[in-house]
Each structure stands twice: as C-alpha cells, then as structure tokens.
Amino acid sequence: MDQSEKDALAMAAHEAADAARHVTLSYFRNGQLGTSNKAHRGFDPVTRADREAEEAMRAVLQRLRPDDAVLGEEHGETPGTSGLTWVLDPIDGTRGFISGTPTWGTLVSVRDADGPLFGLIDQPWTDERFVGGFGRAELQRHGRTVPLRVRPAPGLGEAILFSTFPEIGTPAEAAAFAALSQEVMLTRYGMDCYAYALLAAGNIDLVVEAGLFAYDVQAPIAVIEAAGGIVTDWRGRPVHEGGRVLAAASRELHEAALEILARAPEG
User: Fold this and answer.
1) CATH 3.40.190.80 domain range(s) in the chain
2) What is the largest CA-CA distance in the chain?
3) CA distance 241 to 86
4) How many H helices and E strands in the chain?
5) Among 54, 112, 162, 202, which residue has the least CB neighbours within 10 Å?
6) Do the beta carbons of residue 187 and residue 164 sit within 8 Å?
7) Digit-coded pLDDT (tens) for 115-146
C-alpha cells in the first residue's frame, strides 16, 4: 500500500469520526435518547444516537470508499470488493453515554485480512481523538497534536489495571481476573474504550476484558500497538475478532498477566 492510499484511508477515518461526532454531541446529556434494550437478559442499551451515528459514518464511507466492506455494531455487515473492511462502533460505552459520563467513544478502524491497519478512538465531549496506524500514534485535542506512547509500570505490583465490569465474564474468567487484580497496585472499572485510550496515552498499564466483539477491539488494537503496547487474547493469540482481551503496556507486563489469566479454561 503506497502513502497516498494510506493518507486516503486516514482521511476517510477522520471524516467518519467527524460525522459521528456531530450526531453524538447533539444527543449527549440532552435527555432525548430514545433508549431501548437489545438484550434478552440483562441490560444492553442502544439509543437513537448509536443508530444515527453509524448511519452517518456509513454515508461518509459510501461516498469516499464505496468498494470497501463495512462491519458495524448497529447495522451489521456490508460486503465489499477491495479486501479492506471498516469496523465501526458508533458509541462504545452506551451505558456511560446514557448516564452522562464522558467515558464512551466512537471507534473507527480499517483492516485487511491480517488485522487492523489504522484506528481512531474518538471522545467528542472532551475533544480527544486517539490515532494509531500507518506510522502514527498521536492524540489530537483542542487543535494540538501530541505523541502517544505507552508508559509501562516496572512490574505488576506497580501497575494500574482497568476493566469495564467488576463481574467480568464467566465465573472462571472472573476468578482469573480477580487473581490478577490482587497482584496490581490499583484496579478501576467502567471506562469502556476510554481505558484503551488511557493505556495508549501512558496513564495506565493493563486493560482486561471478556466477551468483546470485533467492533469493540479493532480500533483499540490499532491505537495501542502504534503507541508501543500489546493486545492479545488471554493465551497470547491474535484477538481481532474479540473475545477475551488483554492489553498491556509492555511485553513483561503482558507475560506476567498472561500467566495468571491462563488459569481460566478455554471456553
């Protein structure tokens, strides 16, 4: 892929994120969300903002990249012929979105058969866009651009660990996570995709989750790997399609966390 193609893909990603921003900011904290529950059991919310933001992103990609495939959380998969697929999550962290916390984000990434090439984690309310891929790792905020670089703790005992839910995954997954949590300095919850952004920015050291989908993780993979981190499943394998996710700021932390998380049986 030559530089002009990389630039075109990056431009399309930014335009898609801009289009989603316009929608999500028009709904955030205004009380007009039209929330419904997608889950048969439990609570998995979706709002008008989710659906309309993805439609806006798809319209941008249809205009700029009509031959590419698209996979989105709200509107499924549209086939393409180019060998590239855009993977979209219009609001990752809808629970936070409907609660008014600025910890949700819009995820945009483009992948080929081998995995994510370029990704964005966009937090419109704080005007932060975390960018990774094609030789870039940067945070764009309030008109300024600064480099992204992980800042690993020297060991698990000094590490900060994030996850979205305290009741992570299955009982076996929860037990493995609890064992890891006991080894780190600090564990925090509820950040959704913003946790991955904080890891890429050098604020935290580990993110561990389970039960994710491709649209939850592909943009974070691109951003974190560009910033020098590592993202795999709980066995150290590629995790492009989701499932159990371990993101780490260094190979040493990654290996130490894997040793503990591997106690959870395959399933």
Assistant:
1) 156-261
2) 50
3) 13
4) 7, 15
5) 112
6) no
7) 999 999 999 999 999 999 999 999 999 999 99
pTM of the model: 0.93
For the domain 3-147, what is the CATH code?
3.30.540.10
β-sheet bridge partners, residue 46? 36
Domain limits, CATH 3.30.540.10, in the chain = 3-147
- Whether 13 contacts 109, CB under 8 Å: yes
Residue linked to tokens 């480099």: 147
Q: Which residues contact 12 (CB under 8 A, 6 or more apart)?
A: 60, 61, 64, 65, 86, 110
Closest CA to 245 of 185, 162, 146: 162
Indicate the residue type of 159. Answer: A
The CATH code that applies to domain 156-261 is 3.40.190.80
Number of Cα atoms under 13 Å in the Cβ half of residue 64 = 20
Q: Which amino acid is at 141?
A: R
Residue 94 three-state SS: helix
In this predicted model, what pLDDT tens digit does every residue of 43-54 receive, in sequence order? Answer: 456 788 999 999
19, 56 contact by CB (below 8 A)? yes
Express each pLDDT in 93-120 by its tens digit: 998 998 899 999 999 999 999 999 999 9
* Contact criterion met (CB below 8 Å) for 231 and 184: no
Distance CA 190, CA 187 (A): 11
